[in-house]
Amino acid sequence: MSDLAALRRAAERYALGADRRDKALWREVLADDVEITGPGFAISGLEANLGSIDHLAHTFTATRHIVHDMEVILNGDSAEGETRSTAEHRMATPEGDMLLLWAIRYQDQWRREGDSWKFTRRALIVDWEELRPLKGTFA
Length: 139
Hints:
By secondary structure, this protein is of the alpha+beta class. It has 3 helices and 6 strands; from the N terminus they run H-H-E-E-H-E-E-E-E. The chain has a single domain (3-133), classed as Nuclear Transport Factor 2, Chain: A.
């Protein structure tokens, strides 16, 4: 697998881990010293960041993170770049189920560890958001 494919796979595993509430997937792609920041939060260290999955499960009934495209600069065993994504968050409210959509960009830094790439930093930027009623579910 090329380095660029492995970096994209790390972003996709991160997204899948969030959506499946699977901490093992995040362990695959987050370095022990990872720092993840975003609007109103900054979390340092792998174990502390794994707690974000618990927060997702408590706050939203479901999520779907879609990785769109990436710009990456490789420098030996490190890389940096931007990952553009959409994050969909389903929420139960007294008015009914709502869908919170975010157009997001991650400012990413990775480090090669053995045969894999791990995030050392992810800075979440929300470009815009939309909140709308969810109009049905399909089984």
